[in-house]
Automatic annotation (TrEMBL):
It comes from Dicentrarchus labrax (European seabass). The lineage of its organism: Eukaryota, Metazoa, Chordata, Craniata, Vertebrata. Keywords: Calcium, FAD, Flavoprotein, Metal-binding, Mitochondrion, Oxidoreductase, Repeat, Transit peptide. Its cofactor is FAD. Calcium-responsive mitochondrial glycerol-3-phosphate dehydrogenase which seems to be a key component of the pancreatic beta-cell glucose-sensing device. This is Glycerol-3-phosphate dehydrogenase, mitochondrial.
Amino acid sequence: MAFRKALKRTAIVGGGAVAAVFGLSQLIEYRKTQAQLAHVAAEAELKVPFADELPSRQAQLAALQNTEEFDVLVVGGGATGAGCALDAVTRNLKTALVERSDFSSGTSSRSTKLIHGGVRYLQKAIMKLDYEQYMMVKEALHERANLLEIAPHLSAPLPIMLPVYKWWQLPYYWAGIKMYDLVAGIQCLKSSYVLSKTKALELFPMLKKDKLVGAIVYYDGQHNDARMNMAIGLTAARYGAAVANYTEVVRLLKTNDPLTGKERVCGARCRDVITGQEFDVKAKCVINATGPFTDSLRKMDNEETQNICQPSAGVHIVIPGYYSPDNMGLLDPATSDGRVIFFLPWEKMTIAGTTDTPTNVTAHPIPGEDDINFILNEVRNYLSPDVEVRRGDVLAAWSGIRPLVTDPSSKDTQSICRNHIVSISDTGLVTIAGGKWTTYRSMAEETLDAAVKAHNLSSEPCKTVGLMLEGGKGWTPTLYIRLVQDYGLENEVAQHLAATYGSKAFDVAKMAQVTGQRWPIVGKRLVSEFPYIEAEVLYAIKEYACTAIDVIARRTRLGFLNVQAADEALPRIVQIMGKELDWSQERKTAELDAAKKFLYHEMGYRSRSEQLTKTTEINLDYQEVVRYKKRFHKFDKESKGFITTVDVQQVLESINVDIDENALHEILNEVDLNKNGQVEIDEFMQLMSAVKKGQVSDSRLAILMKSAEETLDKRGPVTVDRSGGGV
């Protein structure tokens, strides 16, 4: 098997004599203009068969089944797989892509949401005089600039602060960050700068003041990873690629080469996961872009082939937005165990991560409690003591599997390849493995170059540099104003639609229903505190969403932002999808159950009940016990030792508060550990103890009972809203 390390040697950008004549700013503008003209020319050459409307999933499946032979069949619908499909179809190759789950359902939707070159990789390159590592950073910085250009609605530069607590570290880190700017060359987003202690605290007031000497701010890119993945895949579909999610490869098809007599891969036997129908997809070349599942497909080709994937789990958590400024991230360059932790604003929340631990390959990774607590502890180290970092403030948590790879052609087969590798097996199966989100495009380009050469495909040159992605063309920062003015959408909803769908936001707005209110005129929210609207569910189906999980996890990001809010939105989402897709009641129930399990296991929802279960010791003082027993007995008037929804409803009615019975049942169910339909006094005491410790925050039952008690004492009205809660 022939392996080669995929490391593209990009020339170092230099100003030289030209810069001396024109000046750096003029040189930058000149090169940008030349690049833009080249991009316009490249796009002008391409035909877009489905510019007006995407083919349906059924039409895509029909194309897969009825096409006599594709030039390229890509297996895997993550960032790299979608990138390969887009690269191939824009080279005028007949292209197909199949994904056994949903697009971006794996690692590509569970990243740190950064588009970056890798500051720590550059540090290693300099310290170890490692040219390969240096070139890897340079390539990533080039791709960072390209990605920010081709999907401006989904990505933006983000300033990241590196706080410094020792004077000698200030020049050390400054030199490293300045080198990062220099390596980026004319593609540097904004120049890094040094801040005094006072200015650093002004920009990041939550920062720990003690011993702080200053900070350094540098710029990287940030994006909505799952939506970016979708944009790449949808763009490939617009250009004519036959793409289908929930279509798994059962086995590879092979034939004997008439010239050499050797066995060659010539396609795949596929199965529609939703209907169970199987069919063959013939292709001159099959590309394996399955991420952590790389070895599974390679073993379909040859059972005796050596594993190259060494999976590593990275856990992230989401906490409320008040933990960080709206537009400033934080980098912890040296955690207690040597890892790097990012602390970033994202979608009006705060994301923190990641960990890096060996794991087994699974389609359903689960965030571990140890990893969640590790991240929280590291966050505490950098935030002011005034900010209480509570376990209960974790709104969502997830684990993504990073597909690190080894190169069997190297002498040390156990050493991890720092970049990606492209391999071509004896039967012609092309595998692209490893790498990082930021470099998906260059990885795809190199993979297609290798595929074209190995299979003698008639191909045009790569055209994906500067090729605008779905929704990018026609987007402007003020596009949301037109949505407000033309359709009567809320300002926050309009901003969200513009930032998610770009120029396609108008298509979503057209599908929005009238609210019946004076304002907003259209756009019914799925949940009150997030700008996601019901029309997005309908539009998600056009974007090949097949399940409720697809909607809450990847078409919208609700499941990644707040699992409790996602859980509340699920019934309406299932109702809308069921009507549009003609689901039976049995299918609706199955969808609801599957989505709840996804939130419970993969998005960290189970942690809420676990925190209460683990609180076996009630850590309350005597006065607190007396106070909480008194509160409990205001609801348990018959001294049964437990309360039910009926008890709570009676108290609420007495103070003129009306809460839906189903909502009330959900509120009690969060605390009902043994699931017997009632909350015992011990369970209530465990809840209050967990709230005191910070293990649970903003419990709806705790807030409701406290508010009701205060109102009973005052005999005044009280309003109880859903708190949002943590997990």
